[in-house]
Amino acid sequence: MAMIEVQHLTKRYRDRVAIDNLTFSVEEGEILGFLGPNGAGKSTTMKILTGFIPPSEGVARVGGFDVSQHPLEAKRHIGYLPETPPLYPEMTVRGYLRFVAALKRLPPRGLRDEVERVAALTGVTHVAERLLQNLSKGYKQRVGIAQALLGSPPVIILDEPTEGLDPTQRAEVRALIKGLAGKHTVILSTHILPEVTMTCEKVLILNQGRIAAYDDLRKLAGTQGTAESASLEEVFIKLTAA
Ligand SMILES: Nc1ncnc2c1ncn2[C@@H]1O[C@H](COP(=O)(O)OP(=O)(O)OP(=O)(O)O)[C@@H](O)[C@H]1O
């Protein structure tokens, strides 16, 4: 079953077309690598899927719910890490996660356990009593991922989750994302191509608001006029060259 369905999705900002007639779907348990150069329309697509902005045309469904017509039901299916995690600097990690859990209306009974579960999963238990403002960028990012995982939503949308992390932190976050496969449906937007090679089976490459490629990672090179042995980087550069 497709957990995310996007049909003929278009977004215009005044006279600028940010995304143009996108159609794709993500099956349950799949991790889709969402790639594209700066300004390709990745964040715009994710903002529509998560109900932050409305589309100009087309339909987006999450868990079968149209995000424009049934925004609350659609949002209940989604955990979202935006490009800049919405953290409150003066809160502790644990306090912040409890706060988000309450905002998500998780049942008060299991709330504490759920906070500890996502904290452990993202490796922030040992900093749980620290103030967010005093955490390193890598730990802030982990807390951002932890809040997205609260309540175990079936769909997780991650906008550049490893941006600004050091190589070790990146590897840890990558392993964490990989571990979500099968249990969650994930859209992973990133500029870091090896990240996609290591975590995703399917890839969508956006260029200037349009789909330049949408295929299994294994098949991508052979179908884009590049050698079958071509790396994702070579395919990406070929498809997005001006
Ligand atoms: N609020 C806005 N008003 C006007 N134009 C916008 C707005 N938001 C985005 N755009 C434009 O829409 C296009 C797509 O932007 P978007 O942020 O979705 O790209 P992106 O692929 O996420 O880029 P990046 O990798 O740099 O984050 C760009 O040309 C951008 O300038």
TrEMBL record:
Pfam families per record: ABC_tran
Gene3D superfamilies: P-loop containing nucleotide triphosphate hydrolases
Superkingdom, taxonomy of origin: Bacteria
Keyword check for ATP-binding: yes
Residues that span the membrane, as ranges: none
Residues covered by the ABC transporter domain: 4-233
Keywords: ATP-binding, Nucleotide-binding, Transport
Family designation: Belongs to the ABC transporter superfamily.
Protein name: ABC transporter ATP-binding protein
KW Nucleotide-binding (keyword) present: yes
Upper classification of the organism: Bacteria, Pseudomonadati, Myxococcota, Myxococcia, Myxococcales
An example molecular function term from Gene Ontology annotations: ATP binding
SMART domains attached to this UniProt entry: AAA
